[in-house]
Amino acid sequence: MNLTISGHHLEVTPSLRSYVMAKLERILRHFDQVVDVKVLLTVHNQKEKEKRQRAGCTLRVKGQDLFVETSHFDLYAAVDALADKLDRVVVRYKTRQQGSRYGSAKRLDDAGLTLASVG
């Protein structure tokens, strides 16, 4: 897995980098076929303080890119919310992939064919 953490209008400190890496370890527990992860941490100069700090992540898996973005007034809280959203997206992607694999056998059985007669 290639991990890229970059900052826009802020410097990514070693403590922030290790915090993001620790939060993204949870993703690998659910799904180990991750090819590339790009995290972009930004600070916008907005009047609304609630949405000033943003964290975005592009997760490249086999055949698809998954994108999640969150905003919060604290960058660490934005990273926490990003990890939660990314976890839900990865679990949903994984269940969809498993459902499509087993759906073909179910359709064969519904058509009156059994797996023993096919093989």
TrEMBL record:
Keywords: Translation regulation
Entry protein name: Ribosome hibernation promoting factor
Pfam families found in the cross-reference section: Ribosomal_S30AE
GO molecular function annotations of the record: ribosomal small subunit binding
UniProt record, GO biological process: negative regulation of translational elongation
NCBIfam families: yfiA
Cited InterPro entries: HPF/YfiA_ribosome-assoc, RHF-like, RHF/RaiA
Source organism (scientific name): Chryseobacterium sp. B5
Gene Ontology CC annotations of this record: cytosolic small ribosomal subunit
